[in-house]
Amino acid sequence: MTSEEAANERRPRGRGKSRSTDQAATESAGIRSNPRRELVEKQIIEQATRLFAERGFASTTLQDIADATGLTRPALYHYVANKDELLSRLVSESTETPAALLHTINERTDLGPTEKLREMATAIALHQAQAPDRFQLIVRSEAELPEDISRNYEQSRRHVLKEFIRVVEDGIRAGEMRPVDPRTAALAVIGMLNWIAWWHQPGNAVDDRVIATQLADMAVRSLVHQDPQSATPEGPARAIAMLRQDLNYLERLLDESRPD
Fold first, then answer.
1. Are the CB atoms for 219 and 195 separated by under 8 Å?
2. Taking a C-beta distance cutoff of 8 angstroms, is the pair 137, 53 a contact?
3. Using CB atoms within 10 A of its CB, is residue 196 exposed (0-12), middle (13-18) or buried (19+)?
4. What is the pLDDT of residues 68-93, one digit of tens each?
């Protein structure tokens, strides 16, 4: 790609057009109100995802995306300004949107920690099951992400982790979940849910929902408080199991209370 072509990849939408500002604004408003726009944008995102995955972000041009979508390059500028905007949308849909959804669930007052965890795990599992290719693309392209997009991506990942840590901590305090390390537990749950993107084939809404529900149930069962009495026979072994669980919890609290 020449330096001129590279510059064009990042040019603002509409630059170099001879239309008046009022005319451009009117046409833009008409495009936004046209339901066809959503369909075209969806096709653009799908083709961009495929091309970025196949060729890499740096090696894919807007002309490649226009050709794959069946648009001319000038027409493509009606929907997207540059490649960075496309990648930013992909990152937002894959990480920022789930983070916001998790926060909304965590703020609900009609659910306890266990129910919140189930809702959160189901939401993430369903999100990954429905669009695994986008998550795969972002993971593979981490090293190529522009600085501002990379920063937003990392921030969203931290927000997702924070919300899962919060619900586990609330579950432990409420006595609904075992006294485990919340961060370790949150990372384990997130890892299990994200892994869907690498083995699930999307396309069947019923299958997506069944898988999401099953994995959410597994996440909850891995953390809910288990009464040693139901898992261990009566006698010294049960007493030791109860003491070990309490000592692990106490040890973690002491570690957290120590000054740095």
1. no
2. yes
3. buried
4. 999 999 999 889 888 888 888 888 88
